[in-house]
Write a structure and sequence with these properties.
Layout: H1 2-20, H2 44-64, H3 69-84, H4 87-101, H5 105-113, H6 119-142, H7 145-169, H8 178-181, H9 187-209, H10 211-236, H11 241-262
Length: 263
Amino acid sequence: MIPGMTKDIVVDAARAVAFLSRIPMPAWLFAGYDGKLGRLVRVFPLAGLVIGALPALVFLLMLAFRADRLMAALVALSVQTILTGALHEDGLADTADGIGGGKSREQSLLIMKDSRIGSYGAIALILSFALRASALAAIAREASPFAAALAIPAVAALSRGAVAWHWQRLPAAKPDGLAASAGSPAEVTMQIALVTAGFITAILVWPALGLLPFVSALLAAGLATLAFTWFIRRRLGGHTGDTLGATQQICEVAAFCALAMAL
């Protein structure tokens, strides 16, 4: 039974990587798959770990060759964005445009459906990249290159656990939206995702950067996710695919900044 469970987890993790990124996966993994994402949410943190591996390696190599820390951070984030196809950044931009430009729930949802980017979305993306890059550079100033690089997959896993919370705690804002059709995760699925995200973060951050940065990152990510979820509940009445992406970005910004400030 345990080998079978392990196989299921590996297959689900590969499917989650395919959903959350543009990393190619074998076609046989999707044979008989119904496209529902509710079960895959449990392995979102594992997918984040995989997605964050290459950016971390790029960051480590650039620091090892004495590249400027801020430049190395921006390159690593660029690699991560390419791997994900800017999936979460797109959600952040659309959410910012909808919340900033919409005067009502209906108008906000209509704006978020528009693929064009507005001033609120552009500003949100600039701030997201600037804060994450500057925080990563600050971490690299206080920690060894290897320890600093580990922060990337750790936060990638943690932020995708936050997506599970946001998704499960809110109903779908649009019954015909992508997030609604994908299926909502069950309570136990969300809990597995949170425990997995916390465990991965502990393994990567605590030994490398210390207990205080680890606790600070967890608290910052948790508070940011709770606050954003509460705000979206009041503003839109439920989640959309865009708010899921925005949750990941907001959590990532909060976690990186907390790590940098705690060192």
